[in-house]
Amino acid sequence: MNIATSQHLFEKAQHFIPGGVNSPVRAFRAVGGSPVFIKSAKGPYVYDEDDNEYIELINSWGPMILGHANELIQKAVYDAIQHSFSFGAPTRREVEMAELIVSMVPSIEKVRMVNSGTEATMSAIRVARGFTGRDKIIKFEGCYHGHGDSFLIAAGSGAVTFGTPDSPGVTKGVANDTLTAPFNDLEAVQTLVNANKNAIAALILEPVVGNMGCVLPAEGFLQGLRKICDEEGIVLILDEVMTGFRLAKGGAQERFGITPDLTTLGKIIGGGMPVGAYGGRADIMNKVSPAGPVYQAGTLSGNPIAMAAGLTMLNYLNDHPEVYTQLEASGEKLSTGFKASMQKLGLNYTLNHIGSMYTLFFTDQPVTDFPSAKSSDLQLFGRYFHAMLDRGIYMGPSQFESMFLSTALEDKHLDKIITANEESLKEILDL
Questions:
Q1: What is the Cα–Cα distance from 34 to 32, expressed in whole angstroms?
Q2: Nearest to 151 by CA among 113, 112, 129, 180
Q3: Which of 192, 170, 167, 168 is nearest to 179 (CA)?
Q4: What is the structure's pLDDT at 244?
Q5: What is the C-alpha to C-alpha distance for residues 90 and 305, in angstroms, rounded to an integer?
Q6: What is the reported pLDDT for 169?
Q7: pTM higher than 0.85 for the full model?
Q8: pLDDT higher than 90, residue 130
Q9: Is residue 66 a contact partner of residue 272, using CB atoms and an 8 Å limit?
Q10: How far apart are CA 328 and CA 405, in angstroms?
Q11: Is residue 392 a contact partner of residue 53, using CB atoms and an 8 Å limit?
């Protein structure tokens, strides 16, 4: 496959952009080689600067549930642009968006628009601290909540030890207020809580993890966290930036029957435009300025173009439950096909899958947390990634990312992905 133009652009980009990219995973460091530069996308396909066509399994990291450049969303954006791009003032669509989100997600009584998932999680933590009057938070190894200082903390050496800054520029003071637990380990969470009585403001997690690959909560794990938070007066925050409106109309919290105190959203509520939101119980959200003392603001929050795209997306999902039936069927078809290929080839790699999210881990042990995800053969994944790319399948360039399906994928596309997967496995393992 010729990617000469992409290679030239990457070489040029490195002179002007740190690492040549505006977000680290795009650099292909985890898989080797040069990234492909995307020129356009439509439906299930993306096209690079060398005019190669790929069936796409990233979908802008989740929001393109209806596929790329959906006509309804395109029209909504076009119509909104006729009235200018931003006002820095209230608009009707912000009210309609808030009302729609509240109607679709029962745990959200009030919601505040922001500009990204990172901004949403940072704001939710601040509000939880302001509401409880406490400083510490609990996060989980392998869960990613954006690049806010509080979230860039590596796990400590034991359940009650503080984490350490995972990035230069994050202070030890921030690390001292951040406690880290293994995902799916209720006992570790309880130990942290017992050692920090009346000091923990919030516990935040991805209900289905998408950022160490797709990792599901163990049975009873989310309910156990809810119980601990209730007993200790801790604000439970579900980061549904990836799962919100994707795994069900009401997100992962609907699917698993869990009610958080706060929820963070992003990606999907903008139909692919830059956007985020956080919301939850009215008594907590009423602490947000100007209703309360916790300050958070944004000139572009509730941007009219993003609101137009997001309203169209959410209204469609709300009115067409068959979307979720199709996504479930596509995910099941892909999972069944991948497992059949592995059985045929005598392989025992782990495939984690729920609805329209999945990850093939190159390890033969169950993946339930970050250490088990890290047992994957990363070099082998890199070879697999390029073998799939050569066959016209564009995946996330890291073992530690979930793939996302869209309703634009028809049976013929799924069949091609399944075939490419089997051929790629045979190639990289010389079978």
A1: 7
A2: 180
A3: 192
A4: 96
A5: 13
A6: 87
A7: yes
A8: yes
A9: no
A10: 10
A11: yes
Beta carbons of 116 and 167 less than 8 angstroms apart: no
Q: What is the pLDDT of residue 320?
A: 97
Other Cβ atoms within 10 Å of 130 Cβ, number: 19
Nearby residues of 356 by Cβ (< 8 Å), 6 or more positions away:
65, 246, 247, 327, 328, 330, 331, 404, 405, 406
CB 43 within 8 A of CB 405: no
- Cα distance between residue 37 and residue 35, in whole Å: 6
Sign of the dihedral through C-alpha 284, 286, 292, 294 = positive
Q: Please give the angle made by the CA atoms of 340, 397 and 394, to the nearest 5 degrees.
A: 65
Q: Got the DSSP string for 407-425?
A: TT--HHHHHHHHHHHHHHH
Q: How far is CA 202 from CA 36, 243, 282, 312, 398, in A?
A: 39, 20, 16, 33, 29
Average pLDDT rounded to a whole number, residues 329-334:
98
What is the secondary structure of 53-88 as a DSSP string? EEEES-TTTTT-TT-BT-HHHHHHHHHHHTT-S--S
If phi > 0 it is left, if psi is from -120 to 50 it is alpha, else beta; for residue 51 that is left
Torsion region of 28: left, alpha or beta (phi above 0 gives left; psi -120 to 50 gives alpha): left
Quickly state the pLDDT bin for 156 (edges 50, 70, 90).
Answer: very low
The string of pLDDT tens digits covering residues 235-247 is: 999 999 999 999 9
- Cα–Cα distance, 285 to 294 (Å, whole number): 9
Distance CA 118, CA 149 (A): 10
Amino acid letter, residue 225? L
DSSP character for 264? E
Contact 107, 257 (CB under 8 A): no
Residue 242 CA, distance from chain mean position = 3
What residues are labeled active site? Answer: 144, 239, 267
Question: What strands lie across the sheet with 38-42, from one edge to the other?
Answer: 38-42, 45-48, 53-56, 393-394
DSSP H helix total and E strand total for the chain = 14, 16
Measured CA to CA, the distance from residue 152 to residue 168 in angstroms comes to 10
161 — pLDDT class (breaks 50, 70, 90): very low
Residues in the chain: 431
